[in-house]
Amino acid sequence: MEIPRVCSSLVTEGGSLEVDGEGTLLITESSVLNDNRNPGQSRQDIEAELARTLGIKKFIWIPGRKGLEITDGHIDGIARFMAPGHVLLSRPSELDDSVWTRIYEEAYDVLRNSTDAKGRKLQITEITEADMNHIGLDEEELDDINAGKEDAPALTYVNYLLVNDGIIFPQFGDNKADAAALKVIRSLYKDRDVEPVYIQELPFLGGGIHCSTQEVPDPAS
After folding, report:
1. Phi and psi for 21 in degrees, rounded to 5?
2. Distance (Å, rounded) from C-alpha 57 to C-alpha 186?
3. DSSP code of 77?
4. For a Cys staple, 120 with which of 85, 155, 197, 208, CB 3.0–4.6 Å?
5. What are the distances in angstroms from CA 206 to CA 26, 128, 131, 203, 214?
6. What Pfam families does UniProt report for this protein, alphabetically (predicted)?
7. Active site residue 7
8. How confident is the model at residue 69 (pLDDT cuts 50, 70, 90)?
C-alpha cells in the first residue's frame, strides 16, 4: 500500500483520538497528557504536534481519569463523532456517586459548552450503557467487581467500528439496553448496515470492538 508515512514522537493509541474530518478533535487529558506516554510534554506541545500531523484546528479536551483502567480513559469509550457537529455520548446505566458518573458529567459539561472547528454548537445524543447486573455475571463475580477486586467491564456502546458502508456494533447480553442502543444507532446511521455482535471477553479486558481493531485507509480516497 502506497500510503505516506508521517513520523511523530507523540505516543497515543487509536482510541485516544476522535476526529470529525473537519478539523475538530475529541481527546482526554488522562490518556494523552500523561507522563506514562508523553513525559514532559505540555498541552501546548501536544496540540502543536497534532495540528502538524493531523491538521487539527479545534481541540476539545475532556478530563477522563488517569489510572482508572488500562487505557487511562480513552475517548472512544466516552464519546464519538457520529457526524461533524454531532457527538454520541456514553451514559452510565445508573447515575450515582461513582467515578464513572463523574466522568460522564464532566464530558457532558465540556461538550455542551464547546463548539467545533467551524464554530457550530455540538448536538449531543446519549446512549445508555449496558447494566453490569444484566449481562449474565454470577453473584460472586458481581461482588468481586463491586469490592474493587476485579475491574468493571467496559459496557459502552460508543466503542463501535465503522467499516466501509457498515457498522460493527457491540451487544453485551443486557437485552433491554442492547435493543435500545441498537435502535438509536440505526436511527442515526440510516445509510449504513448495522451488524450487532455479541462480545463477552473484550469488556473485561478494558475495551471493545473499536479498541481491538485498526482501520486501514483506502489509498484511492
Report:
1. 85, 0
2. 30
3. G
4. 85
5. 20, 18, 16, 5, 16
6. PAD_porph
7. no
8. confident
Grid cell locating 185: 444507532
| Per-residue pLDDT, 218 | 76
Model confidence, pTM? 0.93
Catalytic residue, candidates 18, 102, 211, 218: 211
Res 221: pLDDT: 62
CA 11 – CA 32 distance, rounded (Å) = 7
Q: In whole angstroms, how far apart are CA 203 and each of 153, 167, 208? A: 5, 18, 6
Q: Determine contact, residues 74/15, Cβ cutoff 8 Å.
A: yes
Strand order in the sheet with 58-62: 17-19, 24-28, 58-62
Q: What percent of the chain has pLDDT over 90?
A: 83
Over the stretch 121-170, which tens digit does the pLDDT of each residue have?
999 999 999 999 999 999 999 999 888 888 889 999 999 999 999 999 99
Mean pLDDT computed over 87-109: 96
Long-range contacts of 90-97 (CB under 8 A, 24+ apart): 90/126, 90/127, 90/129, 90/156, 90/157, 90/158, 91/126, 91/127, 91/128, 91/129, 92/128, 92/129, 93/128, 93/129, 93/130, 93/131, 93/132, 93/155, 93/177, 94/131
